[in-house]
């Protein structure tokens, strides 16, 4: 498959988006500007991959020609063979990335993300595993240049987490993390084991794209909002004020709590963001079930 037409198409569209963002009135419509910014980031990566792919294929052709004109045992021949092996692997990797870029993107891929980690089977060891997963995701976020911020947590006695909820913001966060949702399992000798026996522990991870107000309507009369004093570590500003907020969504029974911020208003806003994201996840799951539900084939009419 010749990818040159697709790469040229990406390059033309990238130039168009770049020009649109450079226009004086580009940010008069904030929503449109945000969409263009997301498309710009995606196309910038694709055009760079396209240029790298074309260079790799060109270098690969040159090295194959060189190998034909040289003895396989000569120094140039050996160098050409090594370079061909490297370029073939690079060409294959870039080809896969470009094929992914050709597919229409999921609108949620570029959204910020809410990650919820909950301890499952395994008691204290499961809580320690939750802390390991939290450190893994936050270190990955740091490596990619994303920002993360805790929303709520329930620490365990040994330094783990019974539950922790945090937000990650950045480019293509949901795209990179959405397949992390599900049950995670670890088999190891835990710190709580004195006789060296291997234990199996599980945690559940939920990765939710951050919902916007236009995605899900939340009626104020459907909410029970409770304000209380935050507990656990956090200093005087957190533990001595009624800053924690708990929201119960009556129609679904969903409960969201946020106690990470000192400001009650900030905790309420973040709790509503999490609630909105959970409701969006339910809405999308229900729509998928409706689409995937098999249609009932008409049965035979029975004579009476």
Question: Which structural traits does this protein have?
Answer:
disordered C terminus; 5-stranded antiparallel sheet; 3-stranded antiparallel sheet; alpha+beta
Can you describe this structure?
By secondary structure, this protein is α+β, with helices and mostly antiparallel strands. It is built from 7 helices and 8 strands, in the order H-H-H-E-H-E-E-H-E-E-E-H-E-E-H. It has a 5-stranded antiparallel β-sheet, sandwiched between helices. The chain has a 3-stranded antiparallel β-sheet with strand order 6-7-8, covered by helices on one side. Helix 2 runs antiparallel to helix 3 (75-102). The longest helix is centred in the N-terminal third of the chain and has 39 residues, at 30-68. The chain starts with a helix and ends in a 12-residue tail after the last helix. 26% of the residues are buried. Residues 232-240 and 300-304 have low confidence and may be disordered.
Tell me about the biggest sheet?
5 strands, antiparallel
Q: Please give the number of β-strands.
A: 8
Poorly predicted sequence stretches spanning 5 or more consecutive residues: 232-240, 300-304
Instruction: Write down the overall mean pLDDT.
Output: 82
* Structure classification: alpha+beta
Helix content: 40-55%
Estimate the strand proportion: 15-25%
Overall form: globular
Specify the number of helices: 7
The radius of gyration over CA amounts to: 26 Å
Helix-strand pattern, N to C?
HHHEHEEHEEEHEEH
Largest beta sheet: what is the strand line-up? Answer: 2-3-1-5-4
Q: What gap, in angstroms, lies between the N and C termini? A: 61 Å
């Amino acid at each position: 498959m010749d990818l040159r037409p697709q790469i040229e198409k990406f390059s033309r569209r990238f130039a168009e988006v770049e020009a649109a963002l450079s226009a004086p009135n580009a940010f008069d419509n904030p929503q449109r500007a945000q969409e263009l910014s997301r498309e710009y980031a995606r196309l910038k990566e694709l055009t760079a991959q396209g240029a790298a792919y074309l260079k790799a294929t060109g270098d690969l052709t040159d090295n194959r020609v060189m190998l034909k004109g040289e003895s396989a045992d000569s120094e140039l021949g050996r160098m050409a063979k090594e370079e061909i092996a490297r370029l073939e692997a690079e060409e294959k990797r870039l080809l896969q990335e470009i094929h992914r870029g050709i597919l229409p993107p999921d609108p949620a891929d570029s959204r910020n993300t809410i990650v919820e980690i909950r301890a499952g089977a395994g008691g204290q060891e499961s809580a320690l595993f939750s802390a390991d997963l939290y450190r893994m995701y936050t270190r990955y976020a740091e490596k990619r240049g994303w920002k993360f911020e805790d929303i709520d947590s329930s620490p365990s006695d040994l330094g783990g987490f019974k539950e922790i909820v945090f937000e990650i913001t950045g480019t293509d966060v949901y795209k990179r993390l959405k397949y992390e949702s599900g049950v995670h399992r670890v088999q190891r000798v835990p710190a709580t084991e004195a006789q060296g026996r291997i234990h199996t522990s599980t945690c559940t991870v939920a990765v939710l794209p951050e919902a916007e107000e236009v995605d899900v309507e939340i009626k104020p009369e459907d909410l029970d909002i409770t304000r209380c004093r935050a507990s656990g570590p956090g200093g005087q500003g957190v533990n001595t004020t009624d800053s924690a907020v708990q929201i119960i969504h009556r129609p679904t029974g969903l409960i969201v709590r946020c106690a990470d911020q000192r400001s009650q208003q900030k905790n309420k806003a973040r709790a509503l963001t999490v609630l909105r994201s959970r409701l969006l996840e339910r809405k999308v799951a229900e729509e998928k079930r409706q689409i995937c539900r098999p249609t009932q084939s008409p049965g035979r009419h029975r004579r009476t």
